[in-house]
Amino acid sequence: MRIDVVSIFPTIFDALEVSLLGKARQSGLLDVRVHDLRDYTHDRHRTVDDTPYGGGAGMVMKPEPWGLALDDIAGGVDPRPVIVFPSPAGERFTQATARELSQAPHLVFGCGRYEGIDERVFDYASELGEVRLISLGDYVLNGGEVAVMAMIEAIGRLVPGVVGNPESLVEESHEDGLLEYPSFTKPAVWREREVPPVLLSGNHGAVASWRREQQIERTRERRPDLLAD
Ligand code: 6GU
């Protein structure tokens, strides 16, 4: 999978060089390229923002650098990329979104800062690829970078081969609409706290039904909204 990221803080994405995704990049499973939006400016101050038409607080990202960056990265490429703009005003990012996007051969992430990107950029981008505005949740971050880091991690680990043992992907929270069951390891007693005896019983059927019950109980307690669906 090819992933391009456009940001005015490209070094934030240095963290993608470590751990599982770092290995996937080294092995060529993920081809991640991070671009500095300011490289697509032409003035001495490398300006990327300006005041909003109609007035109001804050600054808006100018369309011209975005147009040049998108032309360079997403223009005329085959197949057309999915172009994701992280935004608290976007559709909600879920495990289903991560699965869907993990099927795309080419993702482009455009990270906005300030009060947002000039709205015309989204329309222009839709001429180059499939545009998605995506939010991590109902809270506000200062910019899209941290949200895109989270999305790349959630998507990248679903690309075949990135996670060594594919079985560890199926038993996770959210994969079956329920939260994950609790896990324990040795010792069997730790600071007077015992591991649930069923897990030591060797009875695989009993273990499986206990885990299922735990999943349902936890989901009811912590995330009743998930059971409603
Ligand atoms: Cl995707 N971007 C920003 N700036 N804030 C957010 C978000 C995204 N998701 C939740 N809050």
Key features of this structure:
229 residues, 2 domains, binds 6-chloroguanine, five-stranded parallel sheet, transferase, alpha/beta, two-stranded antiparallel ribbon, 9 strands, Alpha/beta knot, single chain, Trp Operon Repressor, Chain A
Q: Would you give an account of this structure?
A:
It comes from Microbacterium algihabitans. One of its GO terms (biological process) is methylation. Residues 1-228 form the tRNA methyltransferase TRMD/TRM10-type domain. By secondary structure, this protein is an alpha/beta fold. It has two domains: 2-156, Alpha/beta knot (3-Layer(aba) Sandwich), CATH 3.40.1280; 173-228, Trp Operon Repressor, Chain A, CATH 1.10.1270. It is 32% helix and 18% strand. The chain contains eight helices and nine strands. The strands form three sheets. It has a five-stranded parallel β-sheet. Helix 3 packs across helix 5. The longest helix is centred in the last third of the chain and has 19 residues, at 204-222. Residues 86-88, 134-137, 139-141, 143-144, 147 line the site of 6-chloroguanine (6GU).
